[in-house]
Every structure is written in structure tokens, then in C-alpha cells.
């Protein structure tokens, strides 16, 4: 007999309940389904009747031992439409009470029997649904009528002479008596609420120093005629205008020049944060945990993702730095009240694209806790009008409300944030891009000197060494 029992239950056991399973007494797991060897039985494909017994046991555990279920020795019964599987079932309730249910009708199904060549036969169960007798064994995770996985059994028939007409086992009607009830486990007191880390205030931006106004007068520094002539390598000619070399110096004022782009956190006017918290958790909540969620404080649900409206803060897109606050909450409940968890008012403190997500947590049920904590370490990259998370990793403070479902370092779902300025104008958007270029203070004045040739008689400047006056182009 090949049967996965319920693939959603197995996935939730591995991902959410930190659980596992083991097989014994001949049963085995092939990576896709459990296999139970046949022990005895009889069938008739003509009459569409069968009663086939199998051996073997599967033991499921999870949630730190709170979930404990054993299924053993299945028996397929096909009886003209009254088709089902009987199993020996033991389990532990979520408050620690062990119950032996005995042999009960575990699932109902639509059975069919086919007989082929070489004494081969096959029994198939489709439309498999949980029977009401098995509901308590799943601690309320599943209700009566819950779809289960299909069943397939390949059989080798004995000689024709040894094939009696199948005798069908009637459906059991068992009222299990619980074993001695142990004292219920007491949830540990929550650890002392850690003080949330406070991002340091950015240091005040120093005011640029303003240089004094320079004296823009031109200073002439005369040289002696002899020195000028010697430097020029010429002797003065009689009757001609005497030409001398002089040095002209100017005081150059500091020019206003653009500095490198300066990033200033821009005040955000609107936006939202879209986050699925954890896909595996939400899927388990919809499935085996029989749970739901409700929204509050302006938050809304978009399928299995949640939107938290922006409530205040600033953000510098150029450096991916800022502090952003969002409002609203989501309240998860399931497992008949044993799961009770609220997450609200997320905030992000980011510096250079890395930082912390804070959340207010309020948990009842199996893991009571209340407080605001550093929930996850995050990394983000720019995306559209905001940014998208590339990693959201659960911190040690964030694990305490999950009752062992998740551990420190577990990757939660990534989130996305959209942001808008208070004004939709282009100038506001430009300012929010934090790419403003600011003028720096004037640089200090400096003295620049230049040699020129001057007519000694008229005082007219004939030319400079490069044919023009310094800093004028004349």
C-alpha cells in the first residue's frame, strides 16, 4: 500500500512545526510516500469487494513534542460504495494528554478494484476524506471531510482455489478513553523585554566657512630699467621709445564652485510597506492549522501579503539611509486558539541599505509575549519609487513568539516599500532624490603675477608673455 496520507501536513510538519517522522514494523518511506507491506486479505474485482490488511507504523512528532501522532496497521475495505481505511491511532493533545483511539475509521474514500494478468490486482482509493473519528487525533488541525491524498495498492493474488469470497470488516465505532492525564505543561515566562536599539542621530552638518571678500585691485610691481633691459636682452636705442619689463600682480577672488553631490534625507509624505511575513507560515495557517488573520489600524490584506501605510519618517534614496514608520497590524489565530499572534506598526532604521525592522508583538496561546523588539535584520536595494528587501533574517528577539516554529537566522519573506514626497511636483521629486548640488563657500583669495612689456614713456602695456593680461584674456 502506497500512501502519502496528506502532503500538506508533511510540508507543514517540516517547515512550520520543526517536526519529523519515523517508520517501523515493516513500513518505509521512499521520499514520496509511505509503503505498508500486505499481511493478509481477500478481494473480488467482480463483486467490487475487498478487505486487505497491511502492517507497519508511522510516528509523527513536532512543535517541540507537543504534536505526537502514530498511525499503524492500515486496512483497506471496499464494499460497494462503503469504502474506507481502518487504522490503529494514538496521539497527544496540544496540552500534553496522550490518547489511544484504538482501531478507528481513519478515512472514507471511493474504492475500485481491477484485476489484471498473471494474478495481479490493484486497489485504488480516490476522493479520500478524513473521517470524523480521526479529527481529534490531529488535535483539531483538520476537520471531518478534509481531503487527504489518494491511495494505491498493488497486490499479487494466490492460487484460484485459495481465493475465498471476501469477508468485509464492519466500520469500527470506538469511543477512546484517554490515558492518565499528565499535568499540563506551563508555558515559560517570557524573557525580559529587550530594549529596542535606537539609531544614533546623524551628526550636525557643519556650516561652510565663508571667505572674506577679496581686494580686487591690481598691483603693479615695477622693476629697474637696467634689470628689465638685462632680462629682455636688449639695449635701449636712441630716439626710440624705451621699453621696460614690469610685473603685474592681481588678487584673484575665490570663485563659487559646485561641490560633489550632497545627500540630505528627504521628508517622506506618503507610502506603504507590502510584506507577506512568511509564505510557509501563512500556507500552514490556511491548511493544517485551520487558522485565519484579521487586519487593523489601517493595514490591509492583498491575498497572502499585507500592506502597512506609511506614518512618518525620512529617507535618502542616494545613500539608502533613513528612518521610516508604518502603521497597522495583522492578527493570526489558529489551532483552536493555541496560536494567537499579532504583528503591528513595523518600522525600518536603515544606513547604507542595511538595518533593522522593529515590530510590536503581542502573542498569547502557547508562547505568550508582549513588547516591541528588533524583529529582523534587513538589507534593501532601490526599486521604483522606493526599495525592495533582499534579505529579512529573524533575530533572537523575533523568535520568541513563534514557539519553536522558527529559529534565529530564519529567512522571512522579503518586503517592498513605495515612497512619495509631500508634493507630486517635479521639483519635490528632485529634492527627494537627495541629489542636490550645493554651492560651496568661496575659496581663499590668491595673488597671481605676470610679466608684461611696458612703453616707458607712455606707460602703455605692449604685451604679456602669453600675449594677454592675466585672468582677463585682454
TrEMBL record:
Domain of life: Bacteria
One Pfam family it belongs to: HtaA
Biased composition (Low complexity): 226-239
Matching InterPro entries: Htaa
Annotated protein name in UniProt: HtaA domain protein
Residue stretches of biased makeup (Pro residues): 167-191, 199-211
Organism encoding this protein: Cutibacterium acnes (Propionibacterium acnes)
Stretches assigned to the Htaa domain: 2-152, 270-418
Phylogenetic placement of the source organism: Bacteria, Bacillati, Actinomycetota, Actinomycetes, Propionibacteriales
Region Disordered, annotated ranges: 151-239
